[in-house]
Amino acid sequence: MTGSPPAPVAAAGRATALPAHGLPATGLLAALMLPGLMLTGCASAPPTRPLLQVRSEPVRLASFSERVDTVATLEASEEVNLAAQAGGRILRLLVRQGQAVRRGQLLLELDQTQARAEVARLEAETETHRLNYRRFEYLVGQGAASAFQRDEYRQRYLSSRQELIARRADLAFRDLRAPIDGTVADLSVKVGDVIAPGDPFTRIVRNTGLQARLELPAVLAPRLRPGLVVQLLDPLGDRPLIEGRLRSLDPQVAPGSQLLLAKADLGGAGASAAGAGLRDGQRLRARLLLPGGTRPALPFAAVTRLSGQTFVFVVGDRAALARNPGRSDPAALRGLPAAAPLALQTPVRLGALQDGRYPVLSGVEEGSRVITSQLVNLSHGMPVTLR
Q: Considering the domain boundaries, does residue 3 fall inside one?
């Protein structure tokens, strides 16, 4: 007997409709949510960047001196123009330009032939006059000659002796010796030249005893006094080559330039002028240090320059940043305490650098802290950690 097929029986007791793609609706939802769950489980919070660690120093008061820049001309305190005291032909020249000589050293010798012959003649003549004087002195005692004759021969003897002394001195002058220690300058003569008495032919200069001639504005006269420090500067920079002390001031002011001449002795700071390579006649930049006062001081390491403006980074807080927000990033401060240290870029006006510190003319006050490291990595309002 033929019958109809049996109706399908559900596994759970009832029939379940299947979607067109063949998956149950609950399975499809689970499949769609699975990738999201996997992504959510693998994600983590963004890493927090550590704060930049910096060093800082407080702004303290320091003593500064006022500087007056000028030009100095060096001159030797010991310099001798050499000239022969006797004329003649140069027989020997024993020195050359640039040679160091000692006091008493023989420099040149003139031809002495004629001078020696003259001395020999006068020696014989003087001896003759002496003998005649002694003879007539004896004869006067014996009554055989008059006192007038004796006195005449005595006068001849004394005159001849004085002339002999002069000629011997002239002979000694033909050996010219150095009057001081020093260095021979340019020689204007050579062997065989004839020189006249008193004609200068070279100089001896002692560079170890240099002094500086300074021309200073007359308006500074009330503040000038002996003992002030004078520095000679390196031509290639601002480095002091040597220091000295102001020694004297001219009592007059040049009418045209209104400049006051001052002189300073060099080498008082433990270095000699010769050791610094300085020479007579050299011109150098010079700096006179006048007594100054005390000002807030910034270390050299705290200062930066940008587009001709000078800045420092002052350590501040959120309240200080609110007064000068500039281009700071407020998002960078979220989650930080109100008192967290911030780097605040501050414009300043400074004086000339002295001993590694700048005098502050305006911008920061005594007691402020300035950052001295990591300056290239800082920006206005950046949170930092102080070492």
A: no
Q: Where are the alpha helices (DSSP H) in the chain?
A: 25-42, 113-142, 147-173, 318-323
* Residues 308, 278 share a domain: no
Residue 357 burial class via C-beta count within 10 angstroms: exposed 0-12, middle 13-18, buried 19 and up:
buried
C-alpha 159/C-alpha 166 separation (Å) is 11
In a domain, 356, yes or no: yes
User: Domain containing 365 — which CATH number?
Assistant: 2.40.420.20
pLDDT at residue number 249: 93
Those residues whose C-beta lies under 8 Å from the C-beta of residue 154, and which sit 6 or more positions away, are 133, 137
The answer to whether residues 67 and 292 touch, using CB atoms and an 8 Å cutoff, is no
Q: What pTM did the predictor assign?
A: 0.50
Residue 185 lies in a domain: no
User: Contact at 8 Å (CB) between 193 and 246?
Assistant: no
Instruction: Provide the 10 A C-beta neighbour count for residue 179.
Output: 14
pLDDT at 25 over 80: no
Together in a domain, 308 and 283: no
Closest CA to 299 of 342, 348, 354: 354
